[in-house]
Amino acid sequence: MHFDHAGIATEDARELATLYEDLFGLEAVHEEEFDGMRVVFLECGESYLELLEPVEEGTIARYLESNGAGIHHLALATDDIEGALERARDHDVALIDEEPRPGAWGHEVAFLHPKDTGGILVEFVEH
């Protein structure tokens, strides 16, 4: 596994993408609307910043209401998401997703519950 991206909840993904492009010299390399969100990926070296803007009620809208803008999750890339989930089960880590599900950019994803991962929402993403 390796670090893939940090998911950042924001009220305006395009505005934040423009700031990060100008401020950090990053490049927006992918944008889509998915699962009630506008998602913008900015390339940052070998990894990405994933900007998450709600376009309808859902997980990110609720997160912003409760927590405000900021880091929502950290994602680790794997070439075997089923094996990664099995390893999490073996370590008694609670799974939000028992099975992989479709994620942004056409990848399969699954989330681990933050109560068992040091307070961090962790996403497995299969490339």
Automatic annotation (TrEMBL):
<keyword id="KW-0479">Metal-binding</keyword>
<dbReference type="InterPro" id="IPR029068">
    <property type="entry name" value="Glyas_Bleomycin-R_OHBP_Dase"/>
</dbReference>
<dbReference type="GO" id="GO:0046872">
    <property type="term" value="F:metal ion binding"/>
</dbReference>
<dbReference type="GO" id="GO:0004493">
    <property type="term" value="F:methylmalonyl-CoA epimerase activity"/>
</dbReference>
<protein>
    <submittedName>
        <fullName>Methylmalonyl-CoA epimerase</fullName>
    </submittedName>
</protein>
<dbReference type="GO" id="GO:0046491">
    <property type="term" value="P:L-methylmalonyl-CoA metabolic process"/>
</dbReference>
<dbReference type="Pfam" id="PF13669">
    <property type="entry name" value="Glyoxalase_4"/>
</dbReference>
<dbReference type="InterPro" id="IPR051785">
    <property type="entry name" value="MMCE/EMCE_epimerase"/>
</dbReference>
<feature type="domain" description="VOC">
    <location>
        <begin position="2"/>
        <end position="127"/>
    </location>
</feature>
<comment type="similarity">
    <text>Belongs to the methylmalonyl-CoA epimerase family.</text>
</comment>
<dbReference type="InterPro" id="IPR017515">
    <property type="entry name" value="MeMalonyl-CoA_epimerase"/>
</dbReference>
<dbReference type="InterPro" id="IPR037523">
    <property type="entry name" value="VOC_core"/>
</dbReference>
